[in-house]
Specification:
Elements: H1 2-21, H2 27-39, E1 45-46, H3 48-75, H4 80-96, H5 101-116, H6 121-158, E2 165-166
Antiparallel strand pairs: 1-2
Length: 167
């Protein structure tokens, strides 16, 4: 049974990394589930503090990732149409032009949304750039969190008994 849990642990950790790039997958929560699979084995276990901290980090990063592009658009002078355009552009870009649509879609969606709201070209471009930068920052946060959880799982298996981990 441990081998199955370890296999699921690595599968979910890798899905978490993929979720750092693909907005359809909730990256950090999947990675956290991968850590839990390791914890549920008889061979490996993490301390409760470690699991609580990473559970909180996962929830915070997941929530922050949905808010950052909106804040980026608003910070750079965007309107509600720009925010909605960014979200719609992300969905269309993801399915119509993978993998580059994930990056270009929010930018173009925000730009089109801002232009439809009556913003001039310069204002629309600025708001679209805010959405794009927010998306990139959120993606970076997800990749860092999921990558670190993968690192911790590998460290658990290979290093014996590192600090904060009970074996």
């Amino acid at each position: 049974m441990d081998y199955l849990l370890i296999a699921f642990g690595f599968l979910f950790l890798l899905l978490g990394i993929a979720g750092g790039i693909l907005p359809v997958l909730p990256g950090p929560p999947l990675s956290y589930l991968g850590l839990l699979f390791f914890h549920w084995t008889e061979r490996y276990s993490f301390s409760s503090d470690f699991l609580w901290i990473w559970g909180g980090v996962s929830a915070l990063v997941y929530f922050t990732d949905t808010v950052i592009p909106i804040l980026g658009t608003k910070k750079f002078g965007g309107t509600k149409r720009g925010v909605w355009g960014s979200i719609i552009g992300l969905v269309f870009g993801m399915f119509l032009f993978p993998p580059f649509g994930i990056i270009v879609g929010p930018f173009l969606g925000a730009l089109i949304g801002e232009l439809s709201a009556g913003q001039n070209n310069q204002q629309a471009f600025r708001a679209a750039m805010g959405s794009f930068l927010g998306f990139l920052f959120g993606t970076l946060l997800k990749l860092i969190a999921s990558g670190w959880m993968l690192f911790e799982a590998i460290r658990l298996i290979t290093a014996g008994n590192p600090p904060g981990i009970q074996v």
